[in-house]
Design goal:
The structure is a single chain. With 146 residues, the chain is mainly α. The chain is built from 7 helices and no strands.
């Protein structure tokens, strides 16, 4: 397998955005999870940064339930090459796995993991919305009593 030594800078912010979108999480929901100092605009600015501080990367990775390394090391170009090689090898009709030899040790289906994470994030997001509605209801009751 031929590898090129073109060291492209990996864009942390763009990778955060990709993983967030793959998991179906809105910027507002991520901001809510990060704390009071965060909002939609701040997440947008963060996703434009090429390099994100390690402490913030750690917080975001924990919220997204992915390893920090996934954000730091994700290279879109390499991912596309891997997908193309896997797809082309699977449909070559040759009946051999030579193009996919490095994938034969895979013990889980990455798509299933992404779907699993997406479902977990959906449940979390729905719980956050429910908690927000409950908080609003409590505040309305407090206002009525005053």
């Amino acid at each position: 397998m031929k590898q090129t030594n073109t060291h492209q800078k990996i864009h942390h912010g763009r990778n955060i955005k990709r993983f967030r979108e793959m998991l179906g999480i809105k910027q507002d929901a991520l901001a809510l999870e990060l704390g009071d100092d965060w909002n939609h605009q701040k997440i947008s600015l963060l996703e434009q940064k090429e390099v994100v501080e390690k402490s913030i990367l750690s917080q975001i990775a924990a919220i997204l339930e992915i390893p920090v390394e996934a954000i730091v090391n994700f290279d879109e170009t390499q991912a596309i090459v891997n997908i193309q090689n896997n797809y082309e090898g699977a449909n070559s009709g040759s009946g051999t796995l030579s193009n996919n030899a490095n994938y034969t040790d895979c013990v889980f289906n990455p798509i299933e993991k992404i779907v699993e994470l997406y479902e977990a994030k959906t449940i979390l997001y729905e719980r956050l919305l429910k908690e927000k509605d409950e908080m609003i209801a409590r505040l309305e009751k407090l206002i009525e009593h005053k």
